[in-house]
Specification:
The protein is mainly α. The chain is built from three helices and no strands. The chain has helices spanning 19-45, 50-77, 81-115. The longest helix has 35 residues, at 81-115. It binds fe (ii) ion (FE2).
């Protein structure tokens, strides 16, 4: 979010970031993109002005691309980033599959009940 009251915001520090500071800065940048998406979508949803809503949604999509850029950069810089993300995705896939098979089992059971 904007920090206009801080006169030192955006000033170049007298040293460069360490690698770990860079990683944290990139995660903060990534979160800022997500926050921007949230803000633009909320504003698009909150207006009746078609043009403004369309522009806000278009910019939100551009921010989603920026999320991809920051995530890709983290994936390149960190050896374990992609694997950990894949592990998380696999956990969700597993739950989704369980729910899907549970839902199909429940539907099968319902169908069997209705056949009786
Ligand atoms: Fe952005």
């Amino acid at each position: 979010m904007p920090e206009f009251v801080n006169p030192f915001s955006g000033m170049t520090p007298d040293r460069k970031l360490t690698f770990n500071e860079l990683i944290r800065a990139l995660r903060l940048n990534l979160a800022a993109e997500e926050e921007a998406i949230h803000l633009y979508m909320a504003h698009a949803d909150a207006t009746d002005n078609e043009l403004a809503a369309a522009v806000l949604r278009d910019i939100a999509d551009e921010e989603r691309e920026h999320v991809g850029e920051f995530q890709r950069l983290l994936n390149i810089l960190l050896d374990d980033e992609e694997q950990l993300l894949a592990d998380g995705a696999a956990e969700v896939d597993e739950l989704a599959e369980e729910l899907k098979s549970g839902a199909s089992e429940a539907k099968k059971s319902d169908d069997e009940d209705s056949d009786r």
